[in-house]
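Risk register update: the risk of archive-format incompatibility is retired. Evidence:
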Amino acid sequence: MLERKNKQKSSGPTLSRSEIMARVRSKDTTPEIFVRSSLHKAGLRFRIHRKDLPGNPDIIFPSRRIAIFVNGCFWHQHHGCRKAKLPASRREYWETKLGKNVVRDKLNYVALESAGWRVILLWECELTRDFMARLIAELKTGECVSPDSEQKEE
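Archived output:
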């Protein structure tokens, strides 16, 4: 007679916290690919991840000196966004870690602006087709202003 063992359904081996965090992307994220795809479909050509610029902007238009950052609301702490909520566990660790991200971001934006670049911040929670259509129209007319410029000031 065959005995059945109690087996729990699993989706593979359990991942450690370190392995989970290692899978978090810093490049080619879903929001970033959405923005790049929208810009490319509109006929706009750009460069990505320039390592010689402060903060390695996600998208740049070198001839227009425009640098675009596609920020995740959690990792870059989008003020007032529900996605920027801190985890309940190890709160002090996360406050320190994410606080450093915010400070580093501001320093990078200031460095780029002082070098003559226009910085545009795009937040993952704001990325819709309508929003992209407005951004593309502004980029094409050259009247582009950062849709979230007040965020940099805080």
